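Retro notes, item 3 of 5
We never archived the inputs for the 5'-deoxyadenosine complex last cycle. Fixing that now. Sequence and ligand:
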Amino acid sequence: MPKFKIETWGCQMNEYDSQKMVGLLKQNGFTQTESEEEAEVFILNTCSVREKAVHKIHSRVGVLKKRYGEGKIVGICGCVASQEGRALMEKIPYLKFVLGTRSTHLIAKAVNRAMNGLKFLDSNDHKIEMDAPVTFAERTGKTKAYISIIEGCDNFCTYCVVPFTRGREHSRPLSIILNEVRDAVENQGIHEIELLGQNVNSYDYEGKGFADVLEVVSNQPDVQRVRFLTSHPKDFNERLVRVIAAHDNICPTIHLPMQSGSDRILKKMGRQYTRSDYLDKIKMIRDILPECWISSDFIVGFPGEEESDFLDTMDVIQSVKYDNLFSFKYSPRPRTAALKLRDTLVSDSIASSRLSVLQHTQEQIQLNKHLAMINHVYPVLIESFSKKNPKRLTGRTEGNHVVHFEAGRAAQLIGSIVDVRIETVTMASLKARLL
Ligand code: 5AD
Ligand code: SF4
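Structure as it came back at the time:
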């Protein structure tokens, strides 16, 4: 049986797409391997959100070509494939197939053709296929099932390539989403569901919105935890927060990317909210959900960002005190509107120093938040044995904190929820005792 190795970069949506492709290839008689030597086919599922990610893919293809020449089949899927399509095939003739984000259902065809010496390219917008139920995603060893509810993005934030790589918004039918949830719970024994979309709050299918999806999914038998990613602040509303508050199994964990604390920069980014709109939503969330976990994304060094804009961002970070933060230097992306801004570009050294100030501040905030968790009891969903110490288990709190604890009687309980008491902490993780 031909063996393939899949390498996944980027976000949870790519992870889910990879799981679908693995499932499909297995159905078609292929075997997955982690060994580079054993693999006959390499599938690189790629990310293009920042330039660095694209460079990594190009250098990975370069390494494979140098190491194996024509001895292996190498193909690219995902966002780089969607963004560049035919141009990518022309630029790197070594590639045997290129499949866009909406063509992943064609993976077995692409690999079969490549094994017969034929190249394959498809970066079309196969909307209908997105509505097909995915009951073949490979989730062996996983305790959480990613399920896509809406694909693409229509927001066109001026820095972002996603609307060009993942296409226009398309909400998947609720019945199909529920099929996938039931399959994960009943056939794969998974009790945590993470609903995915570039902007889950835009979900709109036959009059149903995201709050409806969340409610219906959380009411399914044996669904112990529901999470979701990502929300756009402009669409995040009180009804959704009330649904979270009314269901014990929906994690009160909200990722609400702000991107910048400066109104001037938010406007240039095309984010469609102001700093005070955003802060009002944070207040609304915390009023309704006193125990909740909020995280965000920020970009520093956007064109025209001055020191005072950066200080506005820092002011938000100091006052909101996020539970987790993802921060990036602005990276110019092809076709995006920000390329046309006439503002002065921020030098790389200034952007780097802003990023390090931001990250250092967040580390302190996070450490203090973790210190405040000591001696408190939290439910943890056990995910696996710890990689470093097989006598330890690793799990996650509702707030997504990584928790390590001695396995004891819980060794048999991977995939279920146990109570632990937090004993020691670092900025990145928590150590606990099983109760
Ligand atoms: N440069 C830097 N960061 C970006 N992001 C998206 N596009 C860019 C870009 N061009 C960040 C945003 C987004 C996260 C997924 O990636 O913060 O929320
Ligand atoms: Fe990109 Fe903005 Fe869409 Fe998020 S909402 S995927 S940042 S365009």
